[in-house]
Amino acid sequence: MENQGASLMRSNVKVLLENHPEMIAEVQEHVLLNLVKNNVNVVACSDAGNPFVYPGISLHEEMSLLQVAGISSDKVLQMATINAAYALGEQNKRGSIQQGFVADLILSDKNPLEDIHNIKTLKGVMLRGKWFQLDELNSYLETM
Q1: Domain ranges of the chain
Q2: Helix (H) / strand (E) containing 48
Q3: 112 touches 73 (CB < 8 A)
Q4: pTM of the model as a whole
Q5: Is residue 83 within 8 Å of 69, Cβ to Cβ?
Q6: C-alpha distance across the termini of the chain, in Å
Q7: Which residues pair with 106 in a beta bridge?
Q8: Nearest CA to 11 among 1, 2, 22, 21?
Q9: Could you read off the pLDDT of 9-60 as tens digits, one per residue?
Q10: 105 vs 79: CA distance, rounded Å
């Protein structure tokens, strides 16, 4: 049963948020920026596992949206690497380039610190210590 205070608040709400997605986006952006400002461990690609979220492209889209929201490229990269490793409890073997860590990384033509979209200027990928050139990756895609 709803308490009296919640019922009174609900009756005073004049705007149905479902009809105003821009308001929802504004509030979400405000909350996100405050979380980052207060050093909360925000992780990029936290919707992985959702059947409508495609690995890879969804992460690029999310990183772009994080930058559009006002988060710096270095913080966005941290969310997708170091923060993700901490969230998984794997900060001692993933999330940064260090001796003894799992060697998963991408190499880009352009600096993603200047613009997060530069992660799409892919030269190659290192996965578990094995290097894959861009043409090799593209040939894998062509066979699918």
Answers
A1: 41-143
A2: none
A3: yes
A4: 0.77
A5: no
A6: 53
A7: 125
A8: 2
A9: 666 666 666 677 788 888 889 999 999 999 999 999 767 678 888 878 888 9
A10: 14
